[in-house]
Amino acid sequence: MKKVFVIIVVTVALFCLSVLIAAPIVNDHVAKKTAKELADLPLPADTEWIESVYKAGKLVGNGNGMQYFGAILIKSELSLEELQEYYSEFAESEWECIVENQIDTEIRIGAHPRLTFQSDIEGDHYYIVYSWGENHTIFHELDIRGH
Fold it and tell me: What's this model's pTM, rounded to 2 decimal places?
């Protein structure tokens, strides 16, 4: 009887540990997919893709909850308004394909963990295009980074 109890306890412990290890991996994948979807969009004329970044965790606001951020850095001869109009065609919600000027490597999305681009940003023609992703699995509740 004692062996059965030990086997059950070890099995439950291993299951819980595997879920806790899997949650950050799954959530990072969702954030990476959010950035990849942006990178896969066709670029407007006179625009160059520079790099992409992504992050999963509690990124803006207070309270609990996972957030999935994906972004691309582009360089374009188009104006901010022209880029916003172009990318609005791909947005299915107000939280997708947001375009803003990018003046340096720091990405300003909130007071929580900072994100940066690795590329040098020199001049006025750099823009960030970003989206907030979604994950409708249980893993968003099990990741400690969301609490």
Answer: 0.86
